[in-house]
Amino acid sequence: MGIALIWSVIAFLIRWIFSKRRGAISYDSSDQTALYIRMLGACVIFKQLFSRDVRVRSQVGFEPERRGSHPYLGVDFRTLHSRAESAGSIPARRIRRLFSFQRHLLSSRLLRGVPHQNPLHILDEDYCGQARCMLEKVGSWNFDIFFFDRLTNGNSLIYLTLYLLNHYGLIELFQLDMVKVRRFLVLVQEDYHNHNPYHNSVHAADVTQAMHCYLKEPKLAKSLTSCDILLGLLAAATHDLDHPGVNQPFLIKTNHYLASLYRNTSVLENHHWRSAVGLLRETELFSHLPAEDSVNMERQLGSLILATDISRQNEYLARFRTHLDQEELCLGNASHRHFILQMALKCADICNPCRPWELSKQWSEKVTEEFFHQGDIEKKHKLEVSPLCDSSTNSIADVQIGFMTYVVEPLFAEWARFSDTRLSQTMLGHLCLNKASWKALQPEEAEFEQDGGSRALPQGSVES
Ligand SMILES: [Zn+2]
């Protein structure tokens, strides 16, 4: 009797541990046995169960020193941007997620050892009519991803990507197992940190939607292969997977293990890529393809995601300019198509300032909130505050105008040279108007702050 009880407690603990996912964990692809290093997360949870000290420290946002060389080494990404929650007040989003049936069912089914029942009906039945209507206009540049995310109960990334995979006929063409596809997308969405103000699954959904808009552009549509499209969509959906909500310099100066693992080079992008590969292998999405093909897909996925490293922007831009100046881009050439996919993903990743003002403004506020939060952490721990992260010397308008001028405008100007279409002109038009709107808000912001106001933007939008 006693032994049975002990076994049932152990079984419960194991089920609980494996159903309680942590963020994706990177592994070096040269070490094939490290595929299941994701499960290391479970070990940490085990430690939390039996160590009160660890649990308390984790709750304040820091895990105990591990791989130990710096007191800030173990910043817990999952709690970095979480707000203090008073007992008894559960955020609405958290309640929604608790009730998200397919999230629980699909993400933990396999690890809990529950046999598959066909969950194919779930999304169809759950589909809200309005969300379905919105998806019919998913190629519109005015697509409101925030509204779509609300309509889909915080599952915009899953629904949108699944819709697009179907839309392009990729599931049938690559004979993808629908259950694996859905499980993969659920895990991808889960591995984004929704406490991050900006780098969360809604941003990933937004980038995927933008990618779709670019894939439809005539030059790309007539030359891209189905494999290119599949890679483009998967790269967009996973390009910031398990983003910690802090930037690479922060990871380097805190001696974070990811910075060591990737030798301070494209640390986050390498982590996003390896995390995506981990999910592909965990869900066996491409297991039916020849090994050579799936390895090639993983490699190309990496090449696309690594291109989103903003510190390498000039390098990609220079190559793009050279190709355009010499009129040598030939989309019949696989390597040129891949380069254009890289540029398309780069554009999709930073296209927020090219969206209509009401959408663009929300993104600007979110990204600046994330920057300033990093700055606050740096100040709190007496670290040098990263550029753009100091809320006492930067404003949202300043940050945005600089970003638009030095990063977004040069990229989209070249993209418009490559793809001179109505969409490109629309994007440049919004960019120009949004920049003017931020400039118009600049003096107001300065006055507002001199009066001792907060950094929140004045209410009332500037129409563009
Ligand atoms: Zn991104």
Notable characteristics:
single chain; 464 residues; mainly alpha; Catalytic domain of cyclic nucleotide phosphodiesterase 4b2b; 24 helices; disordered C terminus; binds zinc ion; PDEase; metal-binding
Description:
The protein has 464 residues and is mostly helical. It has a domain at 122-346: Catalytic domain of cyclic nucleotide phosphodiesterase 4b2b. 62% of the residues lie in helices and 0% in strands. Helix 6 (101-109) crosses helix 12, helix 12 packs antiparallel against helix 18 (267-283) and helix 15 (226-238) crosses helix 19. It is globular. The chain binds zinc ion (ZN). Zinc ion binds next to helix 13.
